[in-house]
Design a protein that fits this description.
- The protein folds into two domains: 151 residues, Aspartate Aminotransferase, domain 1 (Alpha-Beta Complex), CATH 3.90.1150.10; 276 residues, Aspartate Aminotransferase, domain 2, CATH 3.40.640.
- The longest helix has 25 residues.
- The chain is built from 14 helices and 17 strands.
- The chain is an alpha/beta fold.
- Helix 8 packs parallel to helix 9.
- The protein starts with 28 loop residues before the first strand and ends with a helix.
- It is 38% helix and 16% strand.
- Strand 13 and strand 14 form a beta hairpin.
- The structure holds pyridoxal-5'-phosphate.
- The site of pyridoxal-5'-phosphate has 17 residues, from helix 4.
- Belongs to the class-III pyridoxal-phosphate-dependent aminotransferase family.
- GO terms for molecular function: pyridoxal phosphate binding; transaminase activity.
- Keywords: Pyridoxal phosphate.
């Protein structure tokens, strides 16, 4: 495998940024435009995953830039304790209108949104005079963020490992809905859903149903297991368990929301009669133009605050940031004006087709799953038994590297796709503006990378 020319990378020995690794040099991007990222040495890379499913309308859109400039020239920053700003107001109106929610809180990133959602759920029950509700239930192989609360809530084994001493004993976990690995061979979707609902019910009973504050789930699991949708009926069944016991039903759509699945909200694919009690959005909300996330709050939760203390005991300096909200507002307008959600859906159908055509026959491609423009390819050692490669086999990094060398960036997931320890996948989540030709190039490139990397694994074995 040839290494990238060094003039495309940052020189980490002289860099003053503590990058994610002090050993592996990140590439130095000098320009990003449309669906491409340009390097210092002149090469261009097709953005096949929008970072971590962030870039959804492409890079450098002049309309967003104009909006941000206008915002900077009118109101840049005002403190949310004293002031509101038009951008935050308009964005909240748009988002609540689309989702059927009542209010929105704007924060700087997904982890902050999840922290806030945990606290909001807790305070909701205090407002309702139920202080005994202290427990939270999330799922195995979930990701909800990197701050200590969100990381404690989720089960991304590798990211949690160093910090285990700090996680609250009030966070509990049940099985994910992950058909490829955990639905039994002769089990129907309905039976599988019933089994998972029984498990959640049993967890409520174990903890004491009156002690559970909320259940958290990603509508489509993102980074941890790789674009994993639930089987039909799952979320409805989970919600019924929550409703029965008075716990809040919270959906994390930080990675899969804002049109990524071909509907504005991923839960709109699900058989739910009403929106979740709380929903968090991030990543694609700012489309890469601003660091913004939101907590969308249902009427039910707002009413409890209205009847109670009337204020949420939580706040951040950069809450409701005018420039961040304006950027997100422009992104949202473009998504609607250019009918990008419909386009995302259509391109998604095409991507699914070519992924299956090109990759499903490969000896080590175990599963291809996703929705909209949010797809993962999971690799196994043995297709029949679904045996995985040991977590010491770091081939995903090689696949990513081979793709980059051929001009495509996609998103890695390894050491834990299936069970928190083993399992490997890559994610394809390009901007909704991607063309069919560009999608074909991504899949062709990935195919070559897979062939090259597995050949070298075989030679090593
Ligand atoms: C990325 C992500 C988060 C955390 O968001 P950050 O912006 O990285 O803090 C939380 N939940 C899900 C589902 C995510 O994909």
């Amino acid at each position: 495998m040839t290494d990238l020319p060094t003039d495309a990378s940052v020189n980490t020995t002289s860099s003053h940024v503590f990058h994610r690794s002090l050993v592996n040099e990140p590439l130095l991007a000098v320009r990003a435009e449309g669906n491409y990222i340009y390097l210092k040495d002149g090469r261009k890379l097709l953005d096949g995953s929008g970072g971590a499913a962030v870039t959804n309308i492409g890079h450098g859109d002049k309309r967003v830039i104009a909006g941000i400039l206008d915002q900077l020239q009118t109101v840049d920053y005002v403190h949310s304790g004293t002031f509101s700003n038009k951008a935050a107001e308009e964005l909240a109106t748009e988002l609540t209108k689309d989702s059927g929610m009542a209010r929105a809180i704007f924060v700087s990133g997904g982890s902050e949104a999840v922290e806030s959602a945990i606290k909001l759920a807790r305070q909701y029950h205090l407002e309702k005079k139920q202080p005994e509700r202290t427990n939270f239930i999330a799922r195995q192989q979930s990701y909800h963020g990197n701050t200590l609360g969100a990381l404690g809530l989720c089960r991304h084994t590798a990211r949690r490992a160093p910090f285990l001493p700090y996680f609250s004993s009030h966070f509990h976990h049940v099985s994910p809905c992950f058909a490829y690995h955990y639905k039994l061979d002769n089990e129907s979707d309905e039976d599988y859903v019933n089994r998972l609902a029984d498990e959640l019910e049993a967890k409520f009973q174990e903890l004491g149903p009156h002690t559970v504050a909320a259940f958290f789930a990603e509508t489509i699991v993102g980074a941890t297991s790789g674009c994993t949708p639930a089987v039909p009926g799952y979320f409805k069944a989970m919600r019924n368990v929550c409703d029965r016991h008075g716990a809040l039903f919270v959906l994390d759509e930080i990675m899969c929301g804002i049109g990524r699945t071909g509907k504005m909200h991923a839960w709109q694919w699900e058989d739910l009669s009403s929106p979740p009690d709380i929903q968090v959005l991030g990543k694609g909300l700012g489309g890469g133009y601003a660091s913004l996330a939101t907590i969308l709050i249902s009427t039910k939760v707002i009413n409890a605050f209205l009847a109670g203390s009337g204020s949420f005991n939580n706040g951040y300096t950069y809450q409701s940031h005018a420039v961040g909200c304006r950027a997100a507002l422009e992104v949202l307008k473009i998504i609607k004006q250019d009918q990008l959600i419909e386009q995302c859906y259509q391109r998604g159908i095409f991507l699914q087709k070519i992924l299956n055509e090109q990759l499903s026959n490969h000896l080590h491609v175990g599963d291809i799953r996703g929705r909209g423009l949010f797809w993962s390819v999971e690799f196994v050692k043995n297709k029949e038994t679904k045996e995985m490669y040991p977590s010491t086999c770091l081939f995903i990094d090689s696949i990513i590297k081979e793709c980059i060398e051929r001009g495509v960036v996609i998103y890695p997931g390894s050491k834990g796709t299936a069970d928190g320890i083993c399992g490997d996948h890559v994610i394809i989540a390009p901007p909704y503006t991607i063309t069919e030709d560009e999608l074909a190039f991504i899949v062709d490139t990935l195919k070559v990378a897979i062939i090259v990397v597995f050949k070298s694994i075989q030679e090593l074995a």
